[in-house]
Design goal:
Elements lengths: L1 H9 L14 H21 L2 E6 L14 H5 L3 E5 L1 H10 L6 H12 L9 H18 L5 E5 L6 H5 L4 H9 L4 E2 L4 H14 L3 E8 L3 H8 L10 E6 L12 E4 L13 E7 L3 E10 L5 E10 L9 E6 L3 H10 L6 E6 L3 H10 L7 E3 L15
Parallel strand pairs: 1-2, 1-3, 3-4, 8-11, 10-13
Antiparallel strand pairs: 5-6, 5-12, 6-11, 7-8, 9-10, 9-12, 10-11
Helix pairs in contact: 2-9, 2-12, 5-6, 6-8
């Protein structure tokens, strides 16, 4: 192994080397099995194409990042105008497949189908995206989408795309909001590693102290600062919600007619283990990443959108010294289950410097900029 590592470096070959790469046949078989999700992700990334529609909204410019690193890891990207998408959508009016797709949507929603009047438009949009992929896929095998849903999308298309985004993500085609390219890329990595559905959420508010005292303190071994609300308007697949309901986008409806904000999927996220992570390019084109394991607590959120009460050990410090100091945007990818080891190894394999991969450090293990005097 020592000679092999020397020769790999001499030839600039990246390789996965297990934590302790020595053992008998049974040990080595276990190492190979550990490598499978990493290999799946690395292979798939080299066969991935990301489609974007529209520029990032000014209010979410934080999602912007150089695309050069995508090409460095073998990912193809096709940037498109919202106008091109709108033209294609209009051309799909009256498509013979709409009725069947709308019926499938209704079956998925069941009793949660609170906005049946918008299903045909959503079905038309879903068919538009799938046809776009088929017509533009080129030599690639796997796909992800970074789309835009505001400020003009809902007034022109007449709905919000959240439910469609959730359905495609559930089928292995991750869709990020606010044209978050590296968010979509992160989701795709989690899909490959976990072999399961993923989602993309905002880290957008704290758990209220009253909720913490009523539902968490004394019941779970977490401090208030270990908890946060993971939220997005409605892009989480129905299979990862305790009960999904089709509703209108409450934030947009403050300034717009409700009927053009229909199409979001709301519900509390299923409790259980999660991995919270993200791959990102910095403004000066350096790849960096973070990964942390935690859980969604079985606590009612008392809120709207696709949302869950998340708990990650030492989240408060991780948020301050890894995410804020690392200049990460508000979106974090969520894989269901503990997949930190494989995701960390994927990040290393594709070229992220280990010094640029952060994790939620235990108490006493200080971050670079953390003040040791409390």
């Amino acid at each position: 192994m020592l000679n092999a590592s020397y020769n790999l470096a001499l030839r600039n070959v990246r390789a996965y080397i297990p934590e302790y790469p020595v053992g008998d046949a049974e040990d080595c078989a276990d190492m190979i099995n550990t490598f499978i999700p990493v290999a799946r992700a690395v292979y798939a990334l080299k066969n991935l194409k990301i489609f974007t529609f529209g520029p990032r909204p000014q209010n979410f410019f934080a999602c912007n990042a150089p695309i050069k690193q995508l090409y460095n890891i073998g990912v193809e990207i096709e940037e498109n105008s919202e106008l091109d998408l709108f033209e294609s959508f209009n051309k799909h009016a009256g498509d013979a497949r709409i009725a069947d797709v709308a019926k499938d949507m209704a079956a998925e929603l069941g009793d949660g189908n609170k906005k049946p009047e918008v299903l045909e438009k959503l079905a038309q949009y879903e068919i538009t995206l799938l046809d776009w992929i088929e017509e533009h896929k080129g030599s690639k095998t796997y796909f992800a989408i970074a789309g835009k849903c505001w400020p003009a999308f809902q007034t022109q298309f007449g709905f919000v795309p959240c439910f469609v985004n959730s359905r495609l993500t559930g089928r292995g085609i991750p869709v990020s909001c606010e044209v978050d390219i590296y968010g979509a890329l992160s989701e795709f990595i989690g899909t490959c590693v976990s072999d399961d559905i993923v989602t993309l959420l905002d880290i957008n508010n704290s758990v209220p102290k009253c909720m913490y005292k009523d539902s968490i303190e004394g019941k779970f071994d977490y401090k208030l600062t270990d908890t946060f609300m993971g939220f997005h308007c409605g892009n989480t697949c129905s299979k990862k919600l305790t009960k999904g309901e089709m509703k209108y986008q409450a934030i947009m409806a403050r300034a717009l007619p409700i009927e053009v904000t229909n199409g979001t999927l709301e519900g509390d996220i299923v409790p259980g283990d999660i991995t919270f992570y993200r791959l990102q390019s910095t403004s000066d084109n350096v790849l960096r990443a973070y990964v942390a394991e935690g859980e969604v607590l079985p606590v009612a959120t008392r809120s709207f959108g696709g949302i869950g009460v998340f708990a990650i050990p030492e989240m408060g410090r991780f948020y301050r010294y890894a995410l804020i100091d690392g200049n990460y945007p508000h979106h974090g990818a969520v894989a269901f289950g503990h997949h930190g080891k494989a995701i960390f190894d994927v990040f290393k394999y594709i070229g992220v410097c280990p010094d640029e991969i952060e994790f939620n450090r235990p108490a006493g293990n200080l971050y670079k900029a953390e003040n040791p005097y409390k």
